[in-house]
Amino acid sequence: MVKLRRNYSDGKRGSSANYAGKMGIFLVVVIIAIVLIGYGLKDRSDTTPNGYVPAPSISNSSAATDITEGADRNYLPTDLQNEIVHHKYYSLGYNEDAEQAEWVAYPLTAESLYVPNVKRSNWFEADPLVSTRSAAHSDYKNSGYTRGHLAPAGDMAFNREAMTESFFMSNMSPQISSFNAGIWKELEENVRDWAIKHKELYIVTGPILEGGEKRIGRNTKVAVPKAFYKAILDISSKDKTGVAFVVPHRTCEEPLADFAMSIDDLEKKLGIDLYPNLTNDIPQVESTYDLSQWRFDQKKYSDRVKSWNNQ
After folding, report:
1. Tally of structural domains, the chain
2. Which end of the chain has fewer beta carbons closer than 10 Å to its terminal beta carbon, N or C?
């Protein structure tokens, strides 16, 4: 609530003081009215759920390296069907029919992970850059599905702007809680460990959309994928290597290694060339994969099976 300051004028409370007081109250009322009108115009489609916090001020971003600023984004997949949207810290191909990204691509560096994490946003916003309008967070309300990040908030925690971008609804896909907080979380955390080891990785991730999916939301437009994928590529180190995962959208007890495959095999499944500009001279990096290059954290697996799957 706005608190008025008392107006002192030579210790006297004459007509000018009364006038000033009335004007102060009037100005406060005007300001509150403007704020309320502005909030009413905001397209959120429903009330804000309990526990959400306002989006942080981008101007207060930390001094973390802008990992994609000025880059030519040569890590992007080939995509002739979907609208390509470039945010500062990741790009995506938006599938309007499924109301979600078919892929999200970004570099993940050890440098960005060494920066102290900013506070998690938890403020889901429609993506202002999707020309056909992205899904809204209300599409997921009471659906039984969580808003599952494709580019994880944990990968974008190096500054406030990246964190804010990670909560655009174009970066969300419907996920059951035991998947989102289970094997998908385990995979995301392993990828961050791998980025520390490999120094720089190129990530492409998204839903498997084959048609016939269940739909949720207003007009039942948001498709519920039956599986999700993540491709990880390291071409910066001496031992250039890559691996991909296709994980079924369910509660999973199996080890992550059971869902590993080559990037080539994933590309055949998706019908997308994931790294057309990065692997032309090193085709073997996509055709093979060596799990010894990707150490799985056994404690994370144990935590997933014992507790994360029950969330």
Report:
1. 1
2. N
